[in-house]
């Protein structure tokens, strides 16, 4: 028994301070023992069980320095010192240091794997029952296993060193001499620590342990059963072997071995029984056999209590809580309240804190906030002035504090607590650590490409229902901890294994991860919004069931939805910008009510997001390459790029075929793109463009060379057999005006034309968004046209003229030329189309999510893109942003990664938009307005890319009026006659899903 073995003066001092036992008890129980691990080692368990892991670690470390040493190095007692030091690090969330200590312990075991065979066989007497079964004091249940607690010797005499024969052989062979001696060894504790090191090592390494050499070595050694034959010590080896088999991924064999290991002589629990039961519970939980898992975890608590192994009770409590929250959320988990009445808790602050946290979560799910907050306060008091407050216990406290704050309606505190908890959990997360380990193994070529791919498949997976139900906080932490290196390596495994279709799918997964990592709660809130508010037709069976479950568990959601629908319906009945005071006041009141609904909705979603609630990530959609190709027309062509740190990969595919290649010299390509932008006239944001420079034609040569670099095998006339080109850019390729790149038109004599002359072009932020998500484009009922200054120096007459030019091109246009009655993010939910004739000054000036799409209420709360994603979900179907700014304007100076366009586009589409037309650079003149007008007049009757192509053809023929191109400088003959220069017509890019216009039935 652990505490009963503490004898040193240090243990006495700890005991007096903690009030655990009296100094007389300690001396009486331990007088005169010289067994190892030492008495100083056992002193560390007192602060350990109190949650002072740093203090305990100092004790274990000090004990280790006094461990037994010989010419062979450290002896088997150091297995215990290393293991328990590892436990202290693990509880503090220091995965690397913990793993290092567990590895040390197990390498020592490997070195001394026959240590039990050196036990004096005469000391191995049969086992009988203890006279005082501590299970009788347990308050939360009774064991159903009908076993007794074995009475095992505190120490066993073991031979250490070499025999006389071995020393004589060493003399003859020039080896090292080591005097032999008999030493009393606390064998059960050493055996327990070997098992604990294997058990915890698997927890830290996760799936990596299956590929680990030490794991295989342990399985091989333990399979040989290095213990006295036909003796009760063999049960210890069985436990260790079963744990090693589980770490190797051999669960079926592990279960058989562990079940055999539970007792000695068929009836006595032993010091390792609780660890065996814990592993059986872990396997049952993994296999979703929840009744079995609960039984195993409960039984583990009883056996652990009998041997005073309180850390195993803590592990079992974690398992019990998880099982109960999965199977009976909304009910008090079995035994928690009864455990809180256990007399031993008064001296076990770590267990008391974990129990209080479990009670807090249970009460939160039962809707009993006072009890939940009370339990949380109990946990805080238990952690008070203990180092566990900075470890895993403290991190979980922070997470539950966030959950209760959201549930109590305090979104601000909830967000703050959650951000802090995630920041702390990044270093403690085993899955984040496993991902880093996989990177190291892959780069060092320690594992094969196939093994690496399998590991990344598991570690970087999309959140599953099981993830959300069993580990919501860990899942959120992973979502909010993007690992670009791991994502790139994952992609590279598919390339290296010549799996281009899989590589294309992984590229889309990586794009999704990049997007989610920038969103609150890692995209979890967005996922819930889409499940709750997508049209029924957009949901599969799983999504519909998730929606039903959410609405059944949280009926307030339906109340919010119905009220939001009613308010939006009333807003649709009035002008988008009312002129009459009475209507203005009505709109303001409706928006205020909608704001209240949105706030309440979001607070509730915040609480749900942190709970064990499954939700699909419906946006951006994730489709297999086969699914994407199936939805393509025979003559559609998709060109998608994916950038890694070393290369740019290109995929070109149609409905029936695909090809993959790698672009040479990505850095040189970036420089060439910058050169092209400069040749087009772009040097600095909104800087003057010299008319004489537009007469130069060098850009044509550069653009043709770029296209050849992008598609090295491009043949003359290639595009003529296709009806549409969809481009999925990445990184700096977002800034390339592909429309203007020159290509051989196949008519002979090497004649080149812009690509847009021979094929319609559109862009998509992901390959999955290259195909439509809806059957047809809804018919718009209104259009909000925000009227400001497309260029800051524009006179009012220019603004009036631009509005007059556009208004007839749109359905039910309404002029927005003064600050709206409320946040544009709320008003936009009833806008079918949005046109912003204004300089988006805040675009590309920092955080994408703080940019204001509508500009009408720029810089005010609720105007920013992040607010547009709030519930109720909704936004304009089509958005025109001729005043947008991107990194292209500066010719790729500085840190340009394409995220300004990528995130903006996905953010707008996340509200429900299918088409976004925005400017790569801010030409802000007649060409921009003509482009918006031309697309708007055509988009209801043809695909958006065709509308764009026809519009470009018309715009290029328009006469140039210098007064209407505010950045153009120059006079006389240097002024171009038409707008047929890419500076004017290639600034606007069309991002579109390929949705068809709504056609009349024949």
Write up what this structure looks like.
With 1002 residues, the protein is an alpha/beta fold. The chain contains 41 helices and 23 strands. The strands form seven sheets. Strands 18-17-19-20-21-23 form a six-stranded mixed sheet, with helices on both faces. It has a five-stranded mixed sheet with strand order 11-10-9-13-16. Helix 11 (234-247) packs antiparallel against helix 12 (251-261) and helix 19 (392-407) packs antiparallel against helix 30. The radius of gyration is 34 Å and the shape is elongated.
Provide keyphrases for this structure.
alpha/beta; 1002 residues; single chain; five-stranded mixed β-sheet; six-stranded mixed β-sheet; elongated
Topology:
Layout: H1 9-18, H2 23-30, H3 39-42, H4 45-49, H5 53-65, E1 69-70, E2 73-74, H6 77-91, H7 95-111, E3 128-129, E4 148-151, E5 156-160, H8 164-173, E6 181-185, H9 187-205, H10 213-223, H11 234-247, H12 251-261, E7 263-264, E8 268-269, H13 273-286, H14 290-306, H15 310-327, H16 336-339, H17 349-365, H18 369-383, H19 392-407, H20 411-428, H21 430-443, H22 449-459, H23 465-470, H24 472-479, H25 484-496, H26 500-516, H27 524-533, H28 541-553, H29 555-571, H30 581-609, H31 625-631, E9 636-643, E10 648-653, E11 658-663, H32 666-680, E12 689-690, H33 698-710, E13 724-728, E14 742-744, E15 752-754, H34 755-758, E16 761-763, E17 783-787, H35 796-807, E18 813-816, H36 824-827, E19 833-837, H37 865-868, E20 878-881, H38 899-909, E21 915-919, H39 926-938, H40 944-957, E22 968-969, H41 982-985, E23 988-992
Parallel strand pairs: 4-8, 9-13, 12-22, 13-16, 17-18, 17-19, 19-20, 20-21
Antiparallel strand pairs: 1-2, 3-4, 5-6, 7-8, 9-10, 10-11, 14-15, 21-23
